[in-house]
Amino acid sequence: MVRRQGDERGAALVEFALIAMPLFLILFGTIEFGWAFFQLNDIRHGAREGIRLVAVDSDLDPAYAGVDMDTNGERLAQATCERMDQEEGVVVTISLRDLDSPANGLDIGDDVTLRTSKGLDQLTMVFDPVLRSVELDEVVTSRLEQSPSANIHGTTWACR
Amino acid sequence: MQVTGRPVRRATGERGVAAIVFALMLTALLTMSAIAIDLGAGYAERRHDQNTADVAAMSGAVQAVLGGGVVDDVVAEVRAKVDTTLDKTVTDAEWTACKDPAHLELTTIALAPANPTIDPVTECISFNLGFDRVRVKLPPQEAIGAFGPALGFGNITTSAAAVAQVEASNGAGAPPFIAFENAKKGDFVCLRTGGAENAEPENLMQGNGPGNAPSVSTALDPCHSANYGVSSSTFGTVKPYAYKSGCTSPGNTEIRRAIAIGMDHLLGVFPGGFDTAADTAPGAVVNDGYDSRQRVDGWDGCKAAYPNTLQVDTGFTANLLRCALLSPSNSDICVNDVPRLKQGAGHPSGYTITNETFDNTPLWTFFRRAKALHDEGAPVSCVVAATAAQDTGGGVEDVDFFNLAKTTRAGHYKTQFLDLYPNWRKPNWDPYDLFDWTDRCLDEWQVGTNLDGTPKDPELFTEAIGDYPRFAFIPQVAEASLSGPGQLVHIEGFLPVYLNRVYIPTSGSATARDMCGPYDTRVSERYLVHDAGQPWSCGVGNDDIARLASMVLACGMVSDSLCDKDSNLPQTAGLDVYEFRLIE
Lengths: 160, 584
What we know:
The structure holds two protein chains of two kinds. Chain A has a four-stranded antiparallel sheet with strand order 3-2-1-4. Chain A is 40% helix and 18% strand. The mean pLDDT of chain A is 82. Chain A has helices at residues 2-6, 11-55, 72-81, 128-131, and strands spanning 91-97, 111-119, 135-143, 155-158. The longest helix of chain A is centred in the first third of the chain and has 45 residues, at 11-55. Chain A contains four helices and four strands; from the N terminus they run αααββαββ. Chain B is elongated. Chain B has helices at residues 2-12, 17-66, 71-86, 92-97, 108-111, 201-206, 225-228, 331-335, 368-376, 381-390, 401-420, 431-444, 510-515, 545-558, and strands at residues 106-107, 125-127, 133-137, 141-143, 156-158, 161-168, 179-180, 189-192, 243-245, 252-255, 259-261, 266-269, 285-286, 295-296, 308-311, 351-353, 356-358, 471-477, 488-505, 527-531, 578-582. The termini of chain B are far apart. In chain B, the strands form six sheets. In chain B, strands 7, 11, 12, 15, 18, 19 and 20 form a seven-stranded mixed sheet that branches. In chain B, strands 1-2-3-6-21 form a five-stranded antiparallel sheet. Chain B has a three-stranded antiparallel sheet with strand order 9-8-10. Chain B contains 14 helices and 21 strands. The model of chain B is unreliable at 1-9, 168-177, 183-473, 483-488 and 490-581 (pLDDT under 50). Classes of the chains: A alpha+beta, B alpha+beta. At the A-B interface, helix 2 and strand 3 of A face helix 2, helix 3, helix 9 and strand 21 of B.
């Protein structure tokens, strides 16, 4: 009896078990949130880059032409993807709005909106029930500085 | 033994230590995690803020140019883009409280008295004096952190600032040509040569006729870098102060023509126009009642009287030439514009100056806007507005011109033109418009005498010349304002000219030089000289000076963006030359 009371064998295991749970929660949480913020920053950066590409109707790598990218919008979207570090799973959408009245077609000065979005990618899956449905997105609207190439409006492109 | 041993054990017992250590460590871990996560949120918010400031500043700059420089609209655009990108409304209170120690010269606070509807009134949206820079500083934004508030530190606050600048593209946004405000047929314009020993600009202009060879080694080229600081990167930047009218100043030599200075061409200019004796003196300010802004009247031929300015070193800046040749999106702009073509017998009257009847239609309606008319089958709103404002006789007489021209000649022009320059086809521009405009000049604009004093150039009245337009409208500036570099010069109006001769500096326009031949026999060391009507074949099929002139017109007066598709064209800075650059 006495021996049992003073016996500390296994205590470390129990204490570790008690400590480990919050410890790992914190550890994984830090990792997960850090990763999430990295991804959030990444798509925000991508949106910023992409909106500039579209606004100036950037000249794109000719190599894009014909590689399953049928429109200039898709090429611009893919160029946006390539400016992100973790583009896998990112969807880029481009839409334009004719601000002239009466409408006379898309032109310099019209609004262009570019959205980058992706489902949150997890590393540890510890918080999966909470984070599973989280979607990151960034929407930036600017104005066209060059006449847009055809077929940009309505582009939805999954990064590859 | 066991009993007595207990106190000792207690004194050195370690039970509970783990809990204490755990508690301490947990606190430290939690704190560090909180910092890490909240900092992450802060950095993410900072990135978001920078996106917001960037697009707001850039959009503001775009609005400043395309919207005609109405400051209220620019500020509204900035605010709208901030709200859109942040996906929330930044309140008036936030804007008012916003501080920006690095604001530009004119904050909206400073602008508010003269612009009572400006919104928001804040230090954090500011402009430079030239109104070609927009600075936006975002009111502080809170990054929603996980732990900061819980630990009593509150959320991290972030902000971002951006400055967008409107720039001329190609390193030089110089106007394609200039002339003095009072230039008219037969005027003398002097080339400031800097020394009598250097001065033979007259020869330069006349080519090397018998005994009159161009003094290619001495005459100054205003585009020449050694004289006026034009570098290769800014080639074509015209230095208008290199020119001077009147011929009394030492070192100036008379040129027996009014001249215009092209980006890489010297053009013999044939000022058309009309007797202005009974008109308001050039430069006089007239308020004609329908335009609250003052306009300058006086030179009637094709006078743009909107008070524009140009920067002598860098050309047009910001909103300065919006009324002339940029495609306006605001019909109000057109209402206030007055370049007119003389109205021919086939069209109803529109506007009368000194017993001459003018068309009401602003010239630029024949560019993109005319295309819009064509596409939409609807009247050009600005033409209607202009007519309503100016036409005392009533009626909307001009809206059908486009269709009229198209059905008569433009189809022919268009076919030929596009055969030559298929890449010029742009989504919102159509050669129809250029040809329609030219066509109208040909039909209705009466030209007096040729450069040599002979009566009207018969070529002007043939249809064929319409294939190769030789007209341009060049900005007129007051000579007195051309005192030196670094200034803004008021554009007094626009002068209709007939492109008669083209000089291509052999030192500059290598592309044109190499592509074009055989040359005129008067090829000099320094200039290729081409007169109207003389055969001249460029590699791309430019077999007449007039075709080159048409390129100058199109490149210089319509849109710079048209020219980048064809490297054989003279690369001039046109009027759609704005670029927007984030400089901070």
